[in-house]
Records
---
Amino acid sequence: MRKIVFSILLLIGFLFVQAGCMPEFTPTSVEITPSTAPVSEPVTGSDSALQEPTALIIEQHMDATTASGGRPGVMNVTIVPVSAQTGSPIKGVEPIALGQGLNYSFSNDRSQMAVLSYSAKDCERYCLRIIDLDSWQEITGPIPLKKTLNDWFTLTEFDENSRYIPLLVSGNSSDTTEALLIDRTLQEVAVQVKLHSNVYAMTRTPDGSLAVYGTQTDPPNSEMLIYTALLDGTDLHTLWEQTLPEIKLSEGDLTDHSDPLAGVYYDPARIFSPDGSKLYIVAADEPTLYTVDFQTRTTQSFKIEPHLSWLEKLLAFDIRTAQAKMMNGIYKTGVASQDGRYLFVVGQQSVAIKKENDEFEVETIPLGLQVIDTTTGTLIQQMETKANRLSLSQDGKTLLLNSWELVGASDKIWTDVMDLATWKIIQRLNGTASASRLSDGSQAWLVTGANSGSSYTADIYRPGEATPRGHITRSSYVDWVIVP
């Protein structure tokens, strides 16, 4: 029997050597089922200040004076409601001036928007305010926060009926993070808890708790580890926490900043499930999916690989996975399907090349698109794309794949629109497009163009249309408010 098996293996090996290649593994054919639920209920009523489908654009402009001492020449931010049909500001609706810096999130039903900024006319430092999107009026705030301008803030989806707004505050180089609950009724900080980690992502779980993700320094060797925790939604005490030392965030010597070849950074994709009950982490240095389940308070891992037949498994028995050992780093990002069953992941490698004059040149290599089954780690699809960022449409039927590359001395930015029913690129948009909702609940692709130095552009596309409904050109920076 042993001789027969050996003969079969020898024959198979001979056939593939003759063919000049090993077998290509065919991705599993699985249909990504979009949600059948309505995209959204309109957030605006018949008596709304926003009488027509509206998008929100961020404009940055120069003010002669500011609230922080009348210093001229400071750039300030306003949010301007614009018509989805023309791109023109809505008549009779005043923009909201927010000073500098901008963080925002939305309520569960998207009827309210929480906004954090600093140096506005009515708030010298950081302030939190809540805007009702139907009336386009502030209904809470400004609530002042005694924080420095170097702090980083994270807002997440909140309950529109709750009096508390969760907020994370981290310093640039701090190993701690403050978790806050802001009392919107009393307009003050109600709860403040210090977390001994650098937390920079947060979401609500089905039971109203807060799931967080970040990094933590391991004292013995100062190694940076991935950190996750579950916080009580009422008083922010820690219900459960876990580090994941098996996921690499770096390798080699990172202390010598003059030599980019000495070490490598790994930035894995971190994706919360749509209901917030799980966190999926796709490692950057190896094909592994890690799942953190906040409901069962457990973690598990799966090897990311195609579903193989017995013959493919036999042929791959002695094949070793090539580990990525790039000189600068590997970055991945992704989104989850609406039912949480699949992950869509893209990324890129940054490679430092030392030239003859001892200077370094950085080359970026796209990693393509991977579609991963969250229950098994099975690689459903793997496709070539230069995308390094992506978003999923609100109906779950379309991916927007954002790409960037440097061509000569100018940027080339575009977005490929992929139909998930056919896995085909059905449209290319010039600029960076994001999937968003308008005020009436309908979908739109909101696009920002490449900056020319003196002109900034933005476009509003309706899905399936070849030309934009509205085109905006400004002499200073513009961006879109993306409504999930």
---
Amino acid sequence: MTKFVFCHHAERSDRGLGVESERYWGLTRIGVAQTCEKTKILEKTINDAPSGSIMILGGCSKAIRTKSTLMVFTDELRRTFRDEKNVLFSEHFNSMLPLDSLKKIAEEKGDSKNKIVVDFPLCIEEFIAPLGQRECKVAKKLLAGLCGEEGFFRRFFPNNPLVFVNVGHALEIDALVNFLIKENGSAYIGDKVSFNFM
């Protein structure tokens, strides 16, 4: 089973909307607080996931506000599950040696039934579409980017249920929602793949 969870980035600070967060670049303090609240949805997702599931705090665009939103989720989840023995976290993402922590947690996992949360902000080019593209094309390119994301992480977790937490932008996420509804009648695809929007 593969589940894709989508969230719009937190309120951006470069539009004069509020005071910028000192810790999370590109986000307002209000945006950070709202994202902390949204993290409760991810907590429930982890609790409801089957044993051996891997949650990847993963897909983002090249815009710093999407990566910062993922950082808020990661920090909040680490705080929430710090005393849980059956929920393990990868080391903090290291952009100098990005694959090291991923390989390490994949090896440590072995045949364990623990749930694992992976901190790996993967920049997906398709998360930002050029202006003026038709909605259908935007959605199909986004889906292609998600296939690439899954393919990348399946090399490390070939048999585990995967939950991908992706942070993007309103235009692209709306295009995907509309495309899924037109194609399938809903954003739910089936038993093997599902899409959720927060």
